[in-house]
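User: structure tokens for Alkylglycerone-phosphate synthase, please.
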Amino acid sequence: MPGAPISACSASRPPQRVTSHPAAQHGSAMAAAAEAAAGSGPGSQPPAQRRLRILSGHLQGSPASRAPEAERFLSPSQCRAGGAAEQPVASTIPKKRQEILKWNGWGYNDSKFIFNKKGQAEFTGKRYRLSGMVLPVLKEWMEKTLGASLEHKITSRAFLNTSDVPPSIVNEEFLQDLRATKISYSQEAEDRVFRAHGHCLHEIFVLREGMFKRIPDIVIWPGCHDDVVKIVELACKHNLCIIPFGGGTSVSSALECPADERRTIVSLDTSQMNQILWIDEKNLTAHIEAGIIGQDLERQLGESGYCTGHEPDSMEFSSLGGWVATRASGMKKNIYGNIEDLVVHIKMVTPRGVIEKSCQVPRMSTGPDIHHFIMGSEGTLGVVTEVTIKIRPIPEYQKYGSVVFPNFERGVACLREIAKQRCAPASIRLVDNAQFQFGHALKPQVASIFTSFLDGLKKFYITKFKGFDPNELCVATLLFEGDREKVLQHEKQVYDIAAKFGGLAAGEDNGQRGYMLTFVIAYLRDLGLDYYVIGESFETSVPWDRVIDLCRNVKERIVRECKEKGVQFAPFSTCRVTQTYDAGACVYFYFAFNYRGISDPIHVYEQIETAAREEILANGGSLSHHHGVGKLRKQWMKESISDVGLGMLKSVKEYVDPNNIFGNRNLL
Ligand SMILES: Cc1cc2nc3c(=O)[nH]c(=O)nc-3n(C[C@H](O)[C@H](O)[C@H](O)COP(=O)(O)OP(=O)(O)OC[C@H]3O[C@@H](n4cnc5c(N)ncnc54)[C@H](O)[C@@H]3O)c2cc1C
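Assistant: Done. Predicted tokens:
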């Protein structure tokens, strides 16, 4: 292995300086620590643990602290060994993912769209606002829009047949070394299959219809940074291939194993590295292990009164390390920023050693920012183990909203003006007419916040919306956050701008409903697959002056390609603007078609998606705004970042990982 031994690096934790004494804000640190250790004090053990975590954040290298170096800088392994006060907090997603997650579809086992005995669509389970509700219009929408019919149903395999799974090939010498580390691992077929894929259409299709040619041979669960160091050392020693696994929500084929990889493939599952190691209230940062998933992170920070505000639509399942590795973007980026704006410090274990900055500062002018080699590296350079991220006090007030525009063009013009005036709410999303109609299809039977948008509009429609064509209008949903008074002022400013573009305020409920649907929409693809409908979403970013043309051209291209490829039913081709910036916007496309009569639907689908991507690039859009490149889009990397740019990335890879230990073959 080249360079310095990586284990030596794990002690090089950057000092963090906190200038005020923690007791000034928190009363007696000693008393709180004693409370935590004794498991007593106000409330139960968890609040005491939380308090200790906050205090340890304050104590990181505090000049006031007289503790010797080793005591001042807690390493994760020390924290873990710290007894009752630092018991790992269980993740919502268990180590054995199969206990609650689907093996061949999206999300929780108990949550899915089905058609019940009466032939009505229903969303099962109890986890979401839509759970247990009947959706009387969905069936008709699927029939009309996609030509789907209940008579044409596919029954996919209910269970994973382990005899279909490729055998695990791991050499005994490596296993012996691994056992000596006492790090948890599994060679069971189910564990390996669960980590062999993300959530691209073709991956889910393979699971439903067959099996991957190549999957990880072994899953290893490090418990902390030092464990990762040991695993990477062993991988270098035995020449293995490591694929880091976070939440498994990749939509770029990033987790798929290269079919011709002959070395043992290790899926390094970060899920057991999921602790908030400290919270620093003075600098509003938190130092967190990279395997924590979004919902756990926000819940746990919330218990201490903080949030990161990073909310990708996949936040129920995706991990902090995954966000860093893919350069993720959350829906509230207007206030909190994208992952690159949120990250203060990253620690990554590579075959060459541990890479991290020497201090935790807001900005440095020390050549190109090394974080930008790490962010977006998609598991090709190493494993992100710990991240210091900005936190903010939980906002005092949240308010949803919505605006109806006579057409998409007016809506985009309004979003552009809001961006120009730099007054975008935490989230602002504009859906086109097809998605607006689709929202109606998800109307549940019961009267609630989910009352159809169209219903909600009826009474206005006759009066205010005269002149709005229901087949043209489009809707923006809004989410404001902050101090109550400021939110109300902000809201007025945004609605005033909207009015100049013919937009009419359409109520808080309609806005809230839009955001509530965010998490259940991902479950719809599995329902479609049961009825010969395949679908996918993909995204891009584009300068403002090209948004309208790009949206129109890409949607039309999809329709045209479907026809040319022999798709017998009209496709669903729709888009929304999901993020806005000074210089442009992020656009998300949804696309689905009924493949009855087509023998190789995935091949046809991939040809159409490729054509859509070509169209995006021809219209000045980016290869990706936040989904990343993976293996799915790497054919366009050279064209996207230039020959020289690609060469630079290659030389970084060559230096950091000359033996291609991180051999998932993403990006390059
Ligand atoms: C329904 C749905 C909605 C989505 N919405 C959004 C969204 O709003 N915004 C957004 O940005 N993305 C979104 N995505 C895409 C996906 O959630 C992101 O790419 C996410 O950041 C992946 O995180 P993960 O933990 O699931 O990573 P994984 O899928 O496990 O891995 C993704 C890649 O990162 C690497 N990796 C993971 N963890 C580490 C680590 N600790 N160190 C080094 N490499 C690592 C893997 O090797 C792989 O190459 C969505 C996906 C789905 C299916």
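User: Anything notable?

Assistant: The two ends are 22 Å apart (CA to CA).
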